[in-house]
Specification:
By secondary structure, the protein is α/β, with parallel strands linked by helices. The protein has helices at residues 18-29, 42-49, 63-68, 84-93, 111-124, 136-142, 155-165, 183-212, 217-227, 235-245, 267-278, 283-295, 298-305, 320-353, 359-365, 376-386, 397-420, 425-437, 444-455, and strands at 11-14, 34-37, 58-59, 75-78, 102-105, 127-134, 145-150, 168-169, 172-173, 179-180, 459-461, 464-469. Helix content is 52%, strand content 10%. Strands 3-2-1-4-5-6-7-10 form an eight-stranded mixed sheet, sandwiched between helices. A two-stranded antiparallel ribbon has the order 8-9. Strand 11 (459-461) and strand 12 form a beta hairpin.
Length: 487
Amino acid sequence: MQNQNGLNCDIALIGLAVMGQNIILNMNDHGFKVCAHNRTVAKVDQFLANEAKGTNIVGAHTLEEMVGRLKKPRRVMLLVKAGSAVDAFIDKIAPLLEKGDIIIDGGNSEYQDTNRRTRAMNELGLLFVGTGVSGGEDGARYGPSIMPGGNPEAWPHIKPIFQAITAKVDNEPCCDWVGDEGAGHFVKMVHNGIEYGDMQLICEAYHLMREGLAMDNDEMAKVFDSWNSDVLDSFLIEITRDILKFKDTDGKPLLDKIRDAAGQKGTGKWTAIASLEYGIPLTLIGESVFSRCLSSLKSERVEASKHLHGPKTKTISEDKTQFIDHIKQALYASKIVSYAQGFMLMREAAKQFNWKLNYGGIALMWRGGCIIRSAFLGNIKAAFEKNENLTNLLLDDFFKEAIQNASESWRKVVSQAVLIGVPTPTLSSALAFYDGYRSAWLPANMIQAQRDYFGAHTYEHVDNPGKWHHANWTGHGGSVSSSTYDA
């Protein structure tokens, strides 16, 4: 191993997959001395002899050796697979540390696990941090978005490192303290849920152009290129353009050769589950998860396509240029709804766990480095700076006007998609949410009447909310009612 005379390391990092290696190299670039460790110790030697050659990075074959190389308070960061692997490393590391030392979990851990681990480490006198890291391998190497939460006493000791290696927008780091316990991982989870939604919205725009407007990949690439210099300017729009332009070795579009069955690692699903648990209607993100599930039923869909028939008209008859602009507006409006829903969920979680989340700061953290980075996030930051008690992004003047301007196009796109049989689950669910949220009255009174009719679940009167009643709907029912509960 090289550089073994290096002691007094600023931080240790365990896990030498691509993300771990790139974050270590990023830290080294910014002047921090890092000690690298991996469960398979041969990877340590390989890393030092190759990617880390000529750097100040040192290695450790054992956890004891790693801990012995660290300055106090010791900072140990884990970038290992979420779940039992994190707990296994914590159990091995904790006995080697002293009061005030810091363990950082930089993986995609479930926020409830981070809540539990923070409390458990508190009892041992150790400071635990669960931090979301977004940006993929390139972001990790040159500047990710970092979302730390946990024991706030750890923040002054990790802030200089994290804010040095993170992405910068207008010279501001895309990293700040999020909140207590699992707040950082919760915010990262919501980020990933929004990422699912953004990706599915783009796929639906692509589907409409490809099937409804019979556009080829090069034509669509030009559209996405133009969108990337306007209100939809974002990393995902940019890479969609590049994907559409990319040719395989035979000169044909690679995209057309990729099987249409999407995978997932679970964070979008976690976001949807959390939305159900806390009663927040993340309809767009939920639909984006279900869309991936539906795509994975490839063989069933192929068979069904032979038997189930859609509309006779399969193309959009409107002017192509005009309809492309309608798609752009529908995508923009739906994107606003997706972020509004995500911030609704974070606000509810903050109430549940007594987290003091800085919503404008979160938008800033997402402006650079991460997968959902976009110019659009600057408008979200401005909305919360203008009104830190803003209950919903849709009520901010900027977004209210943007939705209003896009509304007619949005409705045309969803209507046309239905008429030609192109599924648009996220564009449609976003519009349905918007129409529901702006409705002073919804038909839920019928649901309450039905529930009371068959299950004596009771209902409230319009003129006396808070007092519950049960009706004898059939004439032979009793006066005893079921207990009430909140979904």
